[in-house]
Amino acid sequence: CGEDGINIFDKSEAAAVEYAVDVLKVKDIVVCGHSECAAHIAILKGAHNLKGNLRGWLRHGEPALYKLQAGAQTDSTLAPHNQLSQLNVLQQLDHLRTYPTVSKAIDEGRLQLHGWWFDIAKAEVYAWEPPFGRFLLIDQNEAEAILQRLGH
Known about the structure:
This protein is α+β, with helices and mostly antiparallel strands. It is built from seven helices and four strands, in the order αβαααααβββα. Strands 1-2-3-4 form a four-stranded mixed β-sheet, with helices on one face.
């Protein structure tokens, strides 16, 4: 750990991504967020006041917070922390695309990234649909559309 207590040596995230894409040859990666996420509530309340590894972990949500503060929305009917959760799913998809192994696999057509969001209270899962610019409920029609895009 560094002087601030943050683990600067943990490479497990990058190693897991590289192993999945390069060794296991996964074809799809799903980033799934969820409603009522305590991390996103904490970020909205000012996670900059927190210390140590918790603060380090929550900093990953800050780019999504900046987008929310700048007016980005996924669903204006959702509470701000749930909108932040959805924006963070999209932010983490962008983050994954920065990995050379991921970008190469996407460019070669070997990998697809998907953003999902789980509404805990409704027990419903939503998929990010770029053409619509929003998360859509994975009902029978949406599930069939997803499977068709995946070639199943």
